[in-house]
Write a structure and sequence with these properties.
The protein has 201 residues and is an alpha+beta fold. Helix content is 26%, strand content 22%.
């Protein structure tokens, strides 16, 4: 075991540090992994606004946004996504993998959050202390931690973990590497989130 420089956070401190202090000020990239995705609110310009407005602002600045998630986002999130032409055109890339249960936010490849909180109001959002979930997580700039988290994220995102996955038969949208063949034929009813696009309802 080696010494790790990190800060342990809980409750509203996670929202303040992860969302307001780091994610909102990203310069190059934000990679998020979460099990659940909901239309949470964040403080922007003295008001509370949907997190997708923050993503729109970041995308407009040229920040590369990735969202890796296990379940279909909530209906309000999908509707807000559909209403943003910039995000639909690729400003926010989304991929789904039912096995994703790790929660992380990687900012500019140099800072990482790891913990229990999902991208939801009760997790990383601006909920009140008496209604938010009890969450814990740590933040760090440790290069080894960031490298290992980035490697896992990239392996799932690229589809490298897809080919041997034993849950392929129940996966709504196997990622697979570009050009790889799948046993399943594409269906009009399948959820396709491999690239940012209008999310099926």
């Amino acid at each position: 075991m080696r010494t790790l420089e990190a800060e342990l956070l809980q409750g509203r401190a996670l929202y303040r540090e992860v969302v307001l202090a780091k994610l909102a000020h990203a310069r190059e990239s934000v990679w998020i992994a979460t099990a659940n995705v909901k239309a949470m609110l964040v403080e922007q310009g003295g008001r509370f606004a949907p997190v997708l407005e923050l993503f729109e602002t970041l995308a407009k600045r040229g920040v590369a946004l990735r969202l890796l998630h296990a379940e279909l986002p909530s209906r309000p999130f999908r509707e807000a996504f559909d209403a943003s032409e910039r995000l639909v055109r690729g400003g926010l890339e989304l991929k789904v993998c039912p096995r994703v249960h790790f929660k992380t936010v990687l900012v500019d490849g140099a800072w990482a959050y790891l913990g229990s909180a999902n991208l939801t109001g009760a997790g990383l959002g601006a909920k009140g202390e008496d209604t938010r979930n009890f969450e814990l997580g740590f933040v760090t700039e440790d290069f080894d931690v960031i490298d290992r988290v980035t490697a896992l994220y990239e392996a799932v995102w690229s589809g490298a973990e897809c080919r041997g996955c034993r849950l392929r038969s129940v996966c709504p949208d196997p990622i697979l590497p570009p050009g790889a063949r799948t046993e399943k034929k594409a269906s009009r009813d399948r959820i396709r989130l491999g690239h940012a696009r209008r999310l099926r309802r």
